[in-house]
Design a protein that fits this description.
Number of strands: 6
Largest sheet: 2 strands, antiparallel
Structural class: mainly alpha
Strand order of the largest sheet: 1-2
Distance between the termini: 50 Å
Shape: elongated
Length: 458
């Protein structure tokens, strides 16, 4: 008989049991569920709501059940519906009527809200550990490439010379924001909902602050209806993970381009590449492509959560059972992608000469040539037009700004003199951009040090 079956005159059919059950996926919450129940039982005994000896027996038995689950000695039953009812059923089987006292003063509604919050808090910390390692590796790669010059792009067209270090550090900034978003999500997840009951709390003299302290929560939820029906923290987590996946996907797109024959800026390690079943020459960036592809999975989880919650009246509704698979999927995907991405980046070979050679094409130093004119008294708009004419001249004569003679420069503007050649060297173009946030070696080295200090504090 179901633990809730008192007012029912017949059993649910087997298909309904299967459709209704969540044990196939929420069983991963067994540790959170048991830990929360142990704290709840301790509070019930402390408050005299149930006999202290009963509370102690419940706690002892729950710890034994936890050990048995982790030893693989427990088989969950679909007919018991979910992890909460499975644990309680096992508890009652072992200690009889005493086990029936555990659920005093709580509902599965606030119980599941507690479990998913505890789970998310743990997962946020684990994801942040992975993300910190990613940032450390990228910062180390940047430190080794402050002199590695490459073209920067806009519209996927060569734009201005930068360093590979500068490019890598742009993603470190993104990942720092991702880390902080997860920290913020943790703060709003860190509210203990147990004691909210089904929706209207309870008549028992619960000590919610005691339970919160036992479980490591800094706060308790302040409205029982919100306590059981809030899933903002789930949505916020998957939203933060979606942005993180978007950053990984953008970086993977560049890795895919850079490893192509057309770019050949990097060579991926064989351990993070695959071949073709028909074309023997192929070396495919499949790890990067899979991360890019799995981003859509996390986006889908986010939209599923939004859609699930958008029309729900207060308080709890069974729709909310759908929150867990979306959260689990997003968490699992991130925890799979981050280590692979980090190792792929750490083991790649950087083709420095190819990067440097690429800055010689596409007139990446054209802006610096215009800046030279401005510094020699020409208004910027006039300087822009003059360099535009020079670029067109180069295109028509299959040459570049570096190789024009001074006579060719002066044929378009008499302002030019020999010093323009030094100003448009790509090394000088990079070094001259020594403003905060710029690509100069001097500033980039400062940013690497800033990142090192940041990583030591998180």
């Amino acid at each position: 008989m179901k633990l809730w079956g008192g007012r029912f005159t017949k059993s649910t059919n087997s298909f309904t049991d299967h459709f209704h059950s969540s044990i196939s996926f929420d069983q991963r919450l067994y540790k959170e569920d048991i830990t929360g129940s142990i704290a709840h039982a301790a509070m019930l005994g402390k408050q005299g709501i149930i006999p202290k000896e009963d509370a102690e027996l419940i706690q002892k038995t729950l710890k034994e059940i936890l050990a048995d689950i982790e030893a693989g000695k427990v088989a969950f039953d679909e007919k018991a519906e979910d992890i909460h009812m499975n644990i309680e059923t096992i508890l009652i089987e072992r200690i009889g009527d005493v086990g029936k006292r555990l659920h005093t003063g709580r509902s599965r509604n606030d119980q599941v809200a507690l479990d998913i919050r505890m789970y998310i808090k743990t997962e946020i910390k684990e994801i942040q550990t992975l993300l910190k390692n990613t940032m450390m590796i990228l910062n180390q790669i940047a430190a080794k490439n402050t002199e590695t010059i490459m073209p920067g792009y806009t519209h996927l067209q060569r734009a201005q010379p930068i360093t590979f270090s500068h490019h890598i550090l742009a993603y470190v900034e993104m990942f720092k924001r991702d880390y902080e978003r997860l920290t913020d999500t943790y703060k709003r997840t860190n509210y203990m909902p147990l004691g909210s009951g089904a929706l209207a709390s309870t008549t028992y003299p619960l000590d919610r602050d005691f339970v919160a302290k036992q479980l490591g929560f800094d706060n308790i939820t302040l409205n029982s209806m919100d306590g059981v029906s809030d899933r903002d923290f789930c949505i916020e987590l998957v939203s933060a993970l979606s942005i993180l996946m978007m950053h990984l996907s953008r970086f993977c797109e560049e890795v895919i381009l850079w490893s192509s024959h057309e770019f050949h800026f990097i060579e991926l390690d064989d351990a993070y590449s695959t071949g073709s079943s028909i074309m023997p020459q192929k070396k495919n960036p499949d790890m990067a492509e899979l991360i890019r592809g799995k981003t859509g999975r996390v986006y889908g989880n986010l939209m599923g959560l939004f859609t699930m919650m958008k029309g729900l009246p207060l308080a709890y509704n069974k729709d909310m059972q759908e929150d867990k698979e979306a959260v689990f999927s997003a968490v699992d995907t991130i925890k799979m992608c981050l280590p692979v991405f980090t190792a792929m980046m750490e083991t790649m070979t950087i083709c420095k000469q190819n990067m440097y050679h690429a800055t010689k094409g596409g007139f990446t130093n054209a802006t610096d040539a215009a800046d030279w004119l401005v510094k020699n008294g020409v208004p910027f708009r006039d300087a822009h037009a003059i360099i535009g004419q020079l670029v067109l001249y180069c295109i028509n004569h299959n040459t570049n700004l570096d190789d024009l003679t001074l006579q060719e420069y002066q044929a378009i503007s008499p302002v030019f003199n020999e010093t323009v050649y030094d100003a448009i060297r790509v090394e000088k173009c990079v070094a001259a951009r020594n403003v905060k946030g710029g690509p100069s070696q001097e500033y980039v080295q400062k940013l690497i040090a800033i990142n090192d200090d940041y990583l030591k504090t998180i």
